[in-house]
Design brief:
mainly alpha, globular
Length: about 325
């Protein structure tokens, strides 16, 4: 399968990157992995350096940046604290710590750290803080100020694009996506917002291509994998969809979303008993997963357990009016 050929070399590369067989320059290898956005490999390599020397300042700085990239604000703060003790804080320490504080929900402390900073990165953080507070106008103003500010805007433009996509302003999102592609077309963040915009505009082929490119770069990227599954379905490529679901289930065996996705494959094959067994085995994990509950109910309905199916589906049907819910609602009525 074409997708298998696309993904396999990168999965193998990621596996090799996580090994501790490098004998030349572990910190250099960690930096190289970080630059290619293979954050898990970078984290493991930097950790190996710190195991040998817990006060290695360059490794601590890199580890702080890795934790930030992975959304692990508390761990980033711990690394920055250790770096300060080592007496070798980087020039952008306040920006790094402010982003870490935003990730841990300490918004006022984060904003205080960058109060006098007028660089593009500072405006990105102010925009993210406003977004966390659901202050949409303030976020929009901060992104606009960031565009006109000095400094690197590699992360500003994708963040702005994501903001406009979340608020359904596709024209503004398209402008920000174009700017992101101008400065860093192959970064994961740029690829992701490009894919999201393509989906919103109905170009599922482009969306799929961008999501697959992310998976090639970072094989364990969950949002990209789920996006690729959705896009491949819309493009009518069931072979690719099945492969991606199987890959997700293999790499994330305890992830409730991929338990549900695997059950969907069973349903496509008409294997309703397998769907029931899978849903039953993971009923607790899927309690709040509306689509999974509907699929479970559909399996029960197809197995002749009409009343149990109705009881399973009723809480979800009461709050949903989409096509998936409506199809099951009609099936239950027909079975009455």
């Amino acid at each position: 399968m074409r997708v298998t050929r696309c993904l396999l070399p990168f999965m193998l590369a990621a596996g090799l990157a996580g090994c501790s067989v490098f004998d030349s320059d572990p910190l250099g290898d960690a930096r190289a992995a970080f630059e290619t956005q293979d954050y898990m490999a970078a984290r493991d390599l930097a950790a190996a350096v710190l195991e040998a020397d817990a006060s290695d300042a360059p490794a601590l700085e890199l580890m702080a940046r890795i934790h930030l990239a992975m959304g692990q604000g508390a761990d980033a703060i711990a690394a920055l604290d250790r770096l300060e003790v080592a007496g070798d804080a980087p020039g952008d320490t306040d920006l790094l710590r402010a982003e870490a504080l935003l990730q841990t929900g300490e918004t006022s402390d984060a904003l205080a750290l960058i109060e006098d900073d007028q660089a593009a990165e500072a405006w990105r953080l102010r925009a993210l803080a406003a977004r966390q507070a659901n202050d949409i106008p303030a976020a929009a103003r901060a992104f606009a100020r960031g565009r006109n500010a000095e400094g690197d805007k590699t992360r500003l433009y994708p963040a702005e694009a994501s903001f406009h996509l979340d608020t359904a302003d596709l024209a503004a999102a398209g402008e920000a996506v174009a700017l992101a592609n101008d400065v860093a077309p192959d970064r994961v963040e740029t690829l992701f917002v490009t894919a999201r915009l393509a989906q919103a505009q109905g170009d599922q082929v482009l969306a799929l291509a961008k999501y697959l490119r992310i998976i090639e770069k970072t094989p364990l990227d969950r949002p990209a994998l789920l996006g690729a599954i959705a896009a491949s379905e819309h493009t009518g490529q069931p072979g690719i969809t099945r492969h991606l679901i199987a890959y997700g289930a293999e790499t994330r065996p305890f992830d409730s979303e991929f338990i549900y996705q695997t059950a969907r494959v069973d349903a496509w094959d008409g294997n309703w008993e397998a769907v029931r067994e899978r849903m039953q085995a993971h009923e607790a994990e899927l309690e709040n997963h509306g689509s999974a509950r509907l699929l479970y109910a559909e399996a029960l309905l197809n197995l002749g357990q009409v009343e149990t199916a109705r009881a399973m589906a009723s809480p979800v049907l009461a709050r949903r009016r989409d096509a998936e819910a409506e199809r099951l609602r009609q099936a239950l009525e027909a079975a009455s």
